[in-house]
Specification:
This protein is α/β, with parallel strands linked by helices and 219 residues long. The chain is built from ten helices and six strands, in the order βαβαβαβαβαβααααα. It has helices spanning 15-27, 39-49, 65-73, 90-99, 111-123, 132-145, 160-170, 175-182, 186-200, 205-214, and strands spanning 7-11, 31-36, 53-56, 80-85, 103-106, 127-128. The protein has a six-stranded parallel beta sheet with strand order 2-1-3-4-5-6, sandwiched between helices. It starts with 6 loop residues before the first strand and ends in a 5-residue tail after the last helix.
């Protein structure tokens, strides 16, 4: 997705905040293709404007940002979702990630942090307000340790390089960091990740991290 122009939809019910975020993104050269003050409008307009990143508040008047995230990710060409919320509550963060959000920032983040987060989420990196990444990884470890439904005996076969990339993803490294570590291009890393997602029938990086931890690849 990183080869596409960054197309952002901003979803927030506070008009002044929504306009300020949209203005900051536009002034940085990103295409703001839509804004929405409620979940229904966001879900309805997304297929037409095709955002690559949706910046979504958790508190919306008609449905939660978590539900908006779920609905957006069910679309034929889903955007990546960056939650931008006033809440730093652990349960809110975990619910958003479980719904498929690629990143989570609190609204106290600076303009530069927001712009960096949107660009990184567009590129496929998981981005969290400092202090929250460890919480998310900890939750995945807890889930991995819990009894799981019986799975099919056949395990998809990953190449050694795909396994190596998966191990680094589980350790929390971004794509550029992995590329530097393995002395390959950013695009090569993305291709390995996409191939791995396809083989494992997973849909996003958050699910991939959980799978990797479940397999003990974060050690």
């Amino acid at each position: 997705m990183d080869s596409e122009p960054i197309r952002v939809m901003v979803v927030d019910d506070h008009p002044m905040w929504r306009d300020a975020v949209a203005r900051d993104l536009a002034e940085a050269g990103l295409a703001v293709v839509a804004t929405a003050g409620d979940g229904r409008k966001a879900v309805g307009v997304a297929p037409a404007v095709r955002p690559t990143v949706a910046v979504v508040d958790l508190q919306l008047p008609d449905m939660s940002g978590v539900e908006v995230t779920r609905k957006l990710l069910r679309s034929a060409k889903p955007p990546r979702v960056l939650v931008l919320s006033a809440s730093g509550e652990h349960q809110d963060v975990l619910e958003a990630v479980k719904a498929g959000a690629t990143g989570y920032l609190v609204k106290s983040a600076s303009r530069e942090e927001l712009l960096d987060a949107v660009r990184r989420v567009h590129a496929g990196d998981a981005v969290f307000t400092p202090g929250l990444a460890g919480l998310v990884l900890g939750e995945y470890r807890r889930l991995a340790a819990a009894p799981q439904p019986e799975q099919a005996a056949a395990t998809p076969s990953l190449t050694p390089r795909e396994t190596e990339v998966l191990r680094l993803v589980a350790k929390g490294l971004g794509y550029k960091q992995i590329a530097a570590r393995l002395t390959v291009s950013h695009r090569t890393v993305q291709n390995h990740v996409q191939n791995t997602l396809n083989k494992l029938h997973l849909h996003n990086r958050a699910q991939l991290v959980r799978y990797a931890i479940d397999q003990g690849l974060d050690e």
